[in-house]
Design a protein that fits this description.
Number of helices: 4
Number of domains: 1
Radius of gyration: 18 Å
Largest sheet: 2 strands, antiparallel
Mean pLDDT: 87
Strand content: 5-15%
Distance between the termini: 61 Å
Order of helices and strands: HHEEHH
Helix content: over 70%
Oligomer: single chain
Strand order of the largest sheet: 1-2
Structural class: mainly alpha
Length: 117
């Protein structure tokens, strides 16, 4: 069994790797003209890779939902196994993040354009 410190170091290593992937993803989407579309793609990328879920149903440690979903959906068999345990939080977090961005973005844009007196 892993210790809490092992899980923390695992998350640090995983986060570093995802941030490196994010820089490569940014290089791929940087030519897209729409700023809003670029931001939404980055939000979805981060939501997919950083949404946590419990590693095992009876374990309090968190793991990336993306990999939990892949593991349970591909390798486990049974009526309770599938992609939904990791996929549901990813979809919910992505939806909530994009909606919040859509609500906050115009406010920040107006605030930025407002002349300072």
């Amino acid at each position: 069994m892993y210790s809490t410190e092992s899980y923390i170091w695992g998350w640090i290593a995983y986060s570093t790797g995802v941030l490196c992937l994010l820089s490569l993803f940014w290089l791929l989407i940087r030519k897209i003209a729409s700023r809003w579309l670029k931001h939404v793609l980055i939000i979805i990328f981060l939501a997919v890779f950083f949404t946590p879920v419990t590693a095992y149903p009876d374990n309090p440690y968190l793991a990336p939902a993306f990999f939990v979903s892949l593991y349970e959906g591909i390798l486990l068999s049974g009526k309770d196994a599938g992609f939904q345990r990791g996929l549901a939080p990813i979809l919910a977090f992505s939806f909530i993040s994009v909606v919040l961005y859509s609500l906050i973005s115009p406010i920040l844009r107006r605030r930025k354009r407002a002349p300072s007196s």
